[in-house]
Design goal:
- The complex is a heterodimer of chains A (about 500) and B (about 525).
- Chain A is an all-alpha fold and about 500 residues long.
- Chain A has 22 helices and 2 strands.
- Chain A has a two-stranded antiparallel sheet.
- With about 525 residues, chain B is mainly alpha-helical.
- Chain B is about 70% helix and about 0% strand.
- Classes of the chains: A mainly alpha (about 500), B mainly alpha (about 525).
- Chains A and B meet through helix 19, helix 20 and helix 22 of A and helix 5, helix 6 and helix 7 of B.
Chain lengths: ~500, ~525
């Protein structure tokens, strides 16, 4: 085994791990006073790691040269694409944090928490491993590294009961999901005699036995938990509402990308020979997520809870691309992921800017009444994000739905696509409620606080991407996504 | 003119104006909006004057590969040209109509209207199926805001209803578009207009497009969003809604449903006829009993648009030409009628018909304009309404005399409710002191009304100007439809000549004295 080549392939992960370990020591000795510099250093590390991805992403990386550690990991274009998205989301998660922790919403212990950036870094390492796994062992390793850091992140406000509750719920349900996943993996190992993706795939060829089918179903259920697809979505609204808002923003982006990418890799590389076995499951999850995500959001007053349902709804559309089970669908899914991440980061950045004079955060509909009069910039940005999430052209959110539905119809799943698109109208109902509250209602006038430049930069950048100008990005984005999706289907 | 991307320019000017308005003060925004719309109108006039009648079918084409999945392709034929002209003509008038009446968040209001203009021009000039959809659907956003922010008391309900109704209709069309593009391998509209889809697929595709366009037109029973939206929208919003947005449905039928799915269109013509006949009679009767002026005109719009759909599905040149002229005429006339309502609403802040009366005494010029537009709405010869309705009904008569008969009652009922409205508002005694004290129309209102009045008369007296650019396109469409056209029950078909005269009787000897019952026969035999 050529370790030099392998280490060269996982250089971004190495950078992040080393940075995480060093910053952990700094945090241990420096305490919360060093929180802000640590956050900046962590963001720099993520940026550097992301920069390392660029050459390979540009030229495209496929074939045996991308296998590391004797086939335990596979750093192909698909993994690189997912990693780039994950690092960008993690940087955004770091940028919005300091202002939040400095404000009164952070509870008794104000000030940037030094362990927050460190946890984000380790979580990113875990996600990198997840998306480049090509063996069930690597997969589980990455998944658990991510999950454990996420549990701590959800509960990072130690004195805050809501945060603690969110962390506990996340932990209990996450552990259950991990157990289900592990059980499925052990079944697959038992019936195919291997843990490497290629070995399991070979073992699954031909007529599939009931035991192996159970293995497939358990693995998919475990993964559905991680991406919060219906019917395994129950934890999402509670965790999103209870966790501190920057953490929620992080949860709704980076781990989602990682889990979706992982799911795509598993269904195509491991179960790729048995499309009939999983396609129906994914189709069901997609439709159920779209419908229940939309219906669940309708009665919500809390904006974070609403965005949680919105993310369930969006996962449904992403799974729609997966259910198509071809390279077009996978490419559409990646394009959707990119746009979804931009919309999510933007929405949460806007949410974090709904501050009172003293910095207290607002998070219900009642607080943003008439926002367009008091804070027009935030209101217009939110308008763009909400119409975009609803998939109304000419915003970029339409393009994400466009590619997914195009792939669906081209694959001949017309009825499936028609039901899904009709259900998307239900979703439009609560997105336009956002606009109604901000633009049509009389101002509540409570949102008066100022926000720092980090928020404005994020809000401006994401709004620009989501605005019609974002369509100019689509040729290069589609090109990248096509390359990434193609590398998923290179398995012999 | 060669090489100047005039269509893009026509979209760029209002777009720049819209962005400027967002950041401008109230008064600046008004002038920026007026300036931008006037410049666009001038560009529109240039467009019309440079349009070569009898030239290539698609003119002013532009194409750029800016996006993945679909291309930025523009180009117009005569039909699109006329509808673009209608849009850019009405836009400055809308801005003038909102000059004083909108005082809240003027910059955003003007920006919304200018965005609307960009999207309308884009919709009519898009040559790529998906680009069309983007423009078509994007109109929801500014219209939702216009109704919701600047609308009346019940604006929230109306805006939701408008948004969700239209969205549900459109998304089904999007699915059909994906299927078509997957099947035909191109999203280029001119190519698709010549593409022959399998007949059984056409049925589904037609229904999906119908779901979208029937809501937009709107056709009974999907029209219920319209009265709500009209009543709650500000005056200029109603003008643009009635003047241009409803035409998107008719344009959709003429651009997509008919040429792309001719067999399915013939197959479903009965459905369109049935819904249109119900709409003509039912909504006219509903209009008759309205006490709210805007609602009355909104219902009359539904009835007029039913004439449009009847004309479109008549499958002959007269019907298609008539439908187009009714669309243009209705755009002008109903827009003008909403302006008429807006003028007195601005003064008295009520749309109740009974609160007015005898306006001809204190507002003679206003009454004159109102009378002209009322007559045009009824279809008095010499006004635009007559030309369109006459052609459309002449067209449908060739296909189905029953549909023609019932649709024609719409004209009688239209006369009933419009004259009844006019009598109650303009004639009679001055029942209300505050209505009697209203001043006649101002210079700004003259500037709004007079151009529309001139256009209405022009179209009524010399419709050739408007028909000429569309003639070749309608002929092409008619040729495309001819194979699928249903057999008409009123077409004159030459039969085989008889040997004898029709009233000739065989001559029998000795029957001369048979009795009185054969008197007639005898006379005929002579």
């Amino acid at each position: 085994m050529d370790f030099v080549a392998s280490f060269a392939l996982i250089l971004p992960e190495l950078v992040l791990t080393c940075a995480g370990l060093v910053l952990l020591l700094v945090a241990a000795w420096g305490g919360d006073k060093a929180g802000r510099p640590i956050a900046i250093a962590a963001a720099a590390a993520l940026f550097a790691a992301g920069f390392l991805l660029v050459p390979a992403l540009h030229t495209g990386a496929d074939g045996p040269a991308t296998l590391a550690f004797g086939g335990l990991m596979k750093i192909d274009t698909f993994a690189l694409f997912a990693k780039a998205l994950i690092y960008l989301s993690a940087i955004a998660g770091l940028m919005i944090a300091p202002a939040f922790f400095a404000g009164p919403s952070a509870g008794a212990e104000r000030g940037m928490r030094a362990e927050y950036p460190v946890l984000i870094l380790f979580s990113s390492v875990g996600m990198s491993i997840m998306v480049s796994a090509s063996d069930f062992m690597t997969l589980y390793l990455g998944l658990e590294l991510t999950s454990l850091t996420s549990y701590v992140l959800a509960a990072i406000l130690r004195r805050d009961t809501r945060s603690g509750e969110a962390g506990l719920k996340y932990f209990v349900l996450g552990a259950l999901a991990s157990g289900i996943l592990l059980y499925g993996m052990s079944l697959l190992y038992g019936f195919t005699g291997g843990t490497a993706f290629t070995a399991v795939r070979e073992g699954l060829t031909g007529q599939m036995g009931t035991g192996a089918l159970f293995g497939v179903i358990f693995v998919l259920s475990g993964l559905a938990f991680k991406i919060s697809a219906v019917p395994f979505h129950m934890w999402t609204p509670d965790v999103y509402e209870g966790a501190p808002t920057p953490v929620t923003a992080f949860f709704s982006t980076a781990p989602k990308v990682a889990a979706v990418a992982l799911t795509a890799r598993v269904v195509f590389e491991v179960f790729g020979g048995q499309v009939a076995a999983w396609q129906q499951i994914v189709m069901f999850m997609a439709l159920a997520s779209i419908i229940f995500g939309a219906l669940g959001a309708i009665g919500q007053e809390n904006l974070k809870r609403l965005l949680a349902y919105s993310s369930i709804n969006n996962i449904g559309f992403i799974l729609l691309g997966l259910a198509v089970a071809n390279a077009d669908g996978a490419s559409a899914m990646l394009v959707y992921l990119f746009i979804y991440v931009a919309m999510s980061i933007g929405s949460f950045a806007a949410l974090l800017m709904l501050r009172a004079e003293d910095g207290t955060l607002y998070e219900t509909f009642a607080d943003i009444r008439g926002l367009s009069v008091t804070r027009p910039a935030i209101a217009w940005a939110l308008l763009i994000f909400m119409f975009s999430l609803a998939g109304i052209p000419p915003l970029l959110g339409f393009y994400s739905k466009f590619v997914v539905f195009q792939a669906t119809i081209e694959a001949g799943l017309v009825a499936f696509g028609a039901i899904a698109i009709a259900a998307s109208v239900i979703g439009a109902f609560y997105y336009i409620k956002f606009v109604k509250v901000m633009f049509f209602d009389e101002p509540a006038g409570v949102v008066t606080g100022k926000s720092g430049p980090a928020h404005w930069v994020l809000l401006g950048m994401t709004a620009l991407i989501v605005s019609p100008l974002g369509y100019l990005l689509t040729p290069s984005l589609t090109d990248l996504a096509d390359k990434a999706a193609a590398s998923l289907f290179l398995v012999p | 003119m060669e090489g100047l991307p005039i269509l893009s320019l026509m979209m760029l000017v209002p777009l720049a104006g819209a962005l400027a308005c967002l950041f401008a003060g109230a008064n600046q925004a008004r002038w920026i909006a007026l300036g931008a719309t006037l410049v666009t109108f001038v560009l529109g006039v240039m467009l019309w004057s440079n349009y070569v009648i009898g030239g290539p079918q698609w003119q002013f084409t532009e194409r750029a590969a800016l996006f993945a999945g679909f291309s930025y392709a523009l180009g117009i034929d005569g039909i699109a040209l006329m509808l673009i002209m209608l849009s850019v003509f009405l836009m400055p008038i809308c801005i003038l109509a909102s000059w004083d009446s909108v005082t809240k968040r003027v910059g955003e209001y003007m920006a919304a209207f200018l965005f609307m203009e960009v999207l309308m021009i884009g919709t009519f000039s898009a040559q790529d199926l998906f680009l069309f959809y983007v423009f078509f659907e994007a109109g929801l956003i500014p219209m939702y805001l216009i109704i919701g922010v600047w609308g009346g008391d019940n604006r929230i309900y109306a805006s939701y209803k408008f948004f969700l109704y239209t969205l549900l209709g459109s998304v089904l069309m999007l699915i059909a578009m994906f299927w078509m593009v997957a099947q035909a391998g191109t999203s280029d509209i001119p190519t698709l207009m010549q593409y022959n889809f399998p007949a059984e697929a056409q049925t589904w595709l037609w229904l999906a497009f119908f779901a979208s366009f029937a809501v937009k037109v709107p056709m009974w029973p999907l029209h219920t969003w319209l009265p709500d939206a009209h009543v709650q929208a500000p005056t200029a919003g109603s003008v643009i809604l009635a003047g241009v947005l409803l035409k998107l449905g008719g344009y959709g039928f003429i651009r997509f449903s008919l040429p792309m799915f001719p067999e399915a269109s013939a197959q479903f013509a009965w459905l369109v006829f049935a819904l249109s006949m119900i709409a003509v009679v039912y909504t006219s009767l509903v209009a008759l009993v309205q006490s709210d002026m805007k609602k009355l005109i909104a219902y009359s719009s539904v009835a007029h648009m039913a004439i449009v759909t009847v004309g479109l599905f008549a499958f002959n040149v007269q019907g298609l030409e008539g439908a187009m002229i009714v669309m243009l005429s209705h755009g002008l006339v109903s827009g003008a009628l909403f302006l008429c309502v807006g003028v007195i609403y601005d003064r008295l802040h009520t749309r109740e018909i009974t609160r007015y009366g005898g306006l001809a005494i204190n507002m003679p010029y206003y009454a004159l304009f109102f009378l002209l537009f009322t007559m045009a709405s009824i279809g008095l010869p010499g006004t635009s309404g007559f030309v369109g309705e006459f052609l459309a009904l002449a067209g449908i008569y060739q296909t189905s005399s029953l549909v023609a008969l019932i649709s024609t009652t719409g004209i009688i009922l239209g006369a009933a409710y419009m004259l009844y409205l006019y009598r109650r508002v303009a004639f009679g005694g001055q029942a209300n002191a505050d209505a009697a004290a209203m001043s006649d129309i101002s210079g700004r209102e003259w500037a709004m009304m007079a151009p529309i009045a001139a256009a209405v008369l022009w179209m009524g007296v010399y419709p050739e100007s408007f028909l000429a650019p569309m003639r070749a396109d309608i002929a092409a469409l008619d040729a495309r439809l001819s194979s699928a056209a249903p057999a008409g029950d009123a077409r004159v078909a030459p039969g085989t000549p008889r040997d004898h005269a029709a009233n000739a009787l065989p001559h029998h000897e000795g029957q001369e004295t048979a009795g009185g019952s054969t008197d007639g026969a005898k006379e005929g035999a002579h």
